[in-house]
Amino acid sequence: MHPLRDSVRQAFASFLAVPTAVIVAFVLLAFGSYAVERTGTGWFRPVLGYMEAHVFGDPEATSTLLGTIATGVITITSITFSLLLLALQQSAGSLTHQVFDQFLRRRSNQVYFGFFVGLTLYALITLATVAPPFNPVLGATLALVATVGALYVLLLLIYSTINQMRPGEIIKTIHDHTLRARQRQLPLLRRTRRAARLPAGDETPVLAPHDGYLQRIDLDTIAASLRQAQAPVEIVFEVPIGAYVAYHDRVAGVRAERGDDAIRVAAGVEGAIRLGRQRDIVTDPAYGIEQLTTIAWRSVSTSQQNPAPGIATVHNLHDLLVRWAIAGRDESGDDIGDQDEAELPVVYPDDVMMRLFGAFESLAVVASESMQAQVYAQIVRTFALAIGELARPDQRRTGDLLLRTLPGLGDHVLTTELDDALTGLVASLERADCRDVAEAFRVARAGLAGSIGTLNSRATRVPTA
Fold this sequence. Notes:
By secondary structure, the chain is α+β, with helices and mostly antiparallel strands. It has helices at 3-39, 45-54, 59-95, 98-105, 107-128, 137-164, 167-190, 219-226, 259-272, 285-300, 307-330, 352-369, 373-386, 392-405, 416-431, 435-449; strands at 204-207, 212-217, 233-237, 244-245, 250-256, 273-276, 346-347. It folds into 3 domains: 3-165, no CATH class; 190-276, Aldehyde Oxidoreductase, domain 3, CATH 3.90.1170; 285-340 and 349-449.
């Protein structure tokens, strides 16, 4: 895809579509009101007569009012938007650039921006129609009513912007985007496999035509190319949605019994993938997980020492973990695509759950670095509550994750909250038949408890044998 075309498409997808639609609506309203008023008919003629007699007495008065509205809206919009950008920049300094992304993606903000720009254009177009003896009373009346509405919309914009800058609101918005992105990804998972069935032999590679992030895989295009094959064919993708590939990196491999089938299908796969300069949270749930992790890492680390956003992130990651675990269980089995009639011979490496577990692992590491025991306690409590909902492979993955984070436990003071979380985790691990992990945490807790009542430094808190 051409870089300029990709940038324009991304801009409209993430922000410009709604403001453009609102602006076009205002422009059409301006032309429509002019056309209606030129006909001189309508049930609203008495209202227009009243407005002409008391407000818009002559074209000059109408022109003055419309000019005031246009310049006033432009001034207010410029000042307000400048202040909002400063507020966003200040918030982004604490919660990373994800603040900008979520602010632009919010539909209400898009409507507000389009409303102010559209009202300005409406007033200017209506002003241009003033030509004595024609007096656009209808257009001026609508402009006056819209201006009154704009002042109230300005209050809504200020309130909503302040509300959106709250860490909890930002984190919850990313959480909701991530859930919707995973829901949109389900058709891809249902129509693909998790493991290859044809033997690995000579594969025809599908190489990236340019660098970028894998944004989309068009399975319908792939299905069309597969129907042309004369013998069994299987496509094995090596990178998931959201992965970065450089020019000529291997994106997939085509396994086929006939070489001409492999070449033809590989060309179809290359046309079915879309690479972009930016990741798209609309279809990439792993990107949402990465955004949440980035916010939590920055706030929990010693650069900020603010546990509140980190704990809020752990809570939202906990919700994602349980929701997706239950959804996977309801889909009957480890392979979400095994029982779908429309399954294609396409292997897709779904790594969203792995990324989610990796987020917990990263936050456990940074919590030990900053000695924020309350954050580590929340991570421990998350797995104590959720492990019963996980499938057996995910339970094993949880056990491995917990053992990898266990060395960092010695950096914490055994607070009451952390002590309770560890006790609950040991009990949950035993119920899930993860007895080796449970025993490791029981021994670790006992070792850390040995420091209670004794003066220790961070390096000597846990006695060594």
